[in-house]
Amino acid sequence: MWEVVPVSKSLDFKNTPSLSISRDCISFSSFTSRIADLSPGMKCVIYADKQNFKLGFEFHHEDKPNSLTLATEGSKSKDPSKKVALKISSRGLINTNEWLHPILKEKAENRRFEIKLALGKWEAYLHPSFENSTTRKAPSLNSNDVGIYRYLNISKEIVYIGMGNIKQRLKSKERDDWDFNEIQYSLITEKDNQKKWESFWLNRYKLENKGKLPLHNKISGIDSE
User: Fold this and answer.
1) Which of 169, 220, 221, 225 is most buried as measured by Cβ atoms within 10 A of its Cβ?
2) Is residue 44 helix, strand or coil?
3) How many domains in the chain?
């Protein structure tokens, strides 16, 4: 049976304010520098919202606490009026926000995010990345843990991606014979957001696997309840 292989609908980052995150720095594109009127030597305070997987950036010229200094990314422009890509250190952010660690393991193109100005801060919505982990034999799950999750077998292959109450779904009888030993998950309270991010990761899986779904998604369909 024929299946359409989805095409990635990535943003045109050449004309969209964006940032890239790595273990050492957060880089702001030259387009971002132009739109946000950034320049080397400016200061930046970083804000983190773990619950909503969001980062905020406040750019300023003052000597505020917890400020980082913007530096040029790459070679300097000979034209001082030309906006260039800039960067700040990400080490403090990474060290204090473990939910970001899985994102750092992704491909470079998946570590680039759009940023938008909202209430005086530039905000970047990242994505939940199954930053929590437990074993199938001794799951450290609470009865009210809800969100998105995925099952991995001993070879680290993803065999299922789902959403809902993680502990309850683990106890489902139809999963007794499924071959997996690890559960990775992100806690997400709102059901609409669970659906959104489950769909995001199923589509990501299909893009990286020639349109195929994980083994048990293919057998059972997208079981989201």
Assistant:
1) 169
2) strand
3) 2
